[in-house]
Write a structure and sequence with these properties.
By secondary structure, the chain is of the alpha+beta class. The chain folds into 2 domains: 56 residues; 98 residues, 2-Layer Sandwich (Alpha-Beta Plaits). Helices cover 40% and strands 22% of the residues. It has 7 helices and 6 strands. The protein has a 4-stranded antiparallel beta sheet with strand order 4-5-3-6. It has a two-stranded antiparallel sheet with strand order 1-2. Strand 4 and strand 5 form a beta hairpin. Helix 3 crosses helix 7.
Length: 161
């Protein structure tokens, strides 16, 4: 994670911090355009690591909204094994939303809001037929997933900045 932090600092980003060992990086930037910043970071990571890495930037305000959003009724969350959030570069269109809905099963349910997909699993994720590889292949889009608890911890920690 220290190497990852140095890559971001080398790109001119400020107040760079990593959060748990899963690729979460928090930083400040004056860049006016998020997509251009994502591409800058992707290029820097490709040069530093030797392989492609898609980035998914969210502002402090967006992260707070994601953490607070309740995609499922509380009664549906009781007993759920996991609530994860999938981050996409762009919001899925109507056709992609239909593909996401097709993943719904007895144990998995999904909700799409903006550039995020919320996935509720009633059992261990390893028991699910849903996985990120299938998701990315069907939608022809990159995604990264985080547990809601990680997102809430991130939002709480960095809301104080």
């Amino acid at each position: 994670m220290a190497d990852l932090r140095r890559v971001f600092e080398g790109l001119g980003l400020k107040e760079v911090e990593t959060f748990i060992a899963s690729g979460n990086v928090v930083f400040n930037s004056d860049a006016p355009e998020i997509r251009a910043l994502e591409l800058l970071i992707e290029d820097g990571l490709r040069k530093a690591l030797g392989y492609e890495v898609t980035t998914f930037i969210r502002t402090d305000e967006e992260l707070a909204g994601i953490a607070k959003y309740e995609p499922f009724k509380q009664s549906h969350l009781r007993g759920a094994a996991a609530l994860n959030v999938g981050f996409l570069v762009d919001p899925p269109g109507a056709a992609a939303k239909k593909l996401i809905a097709a993943f719904k099963s007895e144990i998995d349910d999904f909700d799409v809001r903006g550039r995020e997909v919320y996935w509720r699993s009633q059992t261990k994720q390893s028991d699910s037929k849903f996985n990120n590889v299938r998701f990315e292949k069907m939608l022809n889009a990159r995604a990264t997933w985080r547990g809601i608890n990680t997102i809430r911890r991130l939002a709480a920690k960095f809301a104080l900045r």
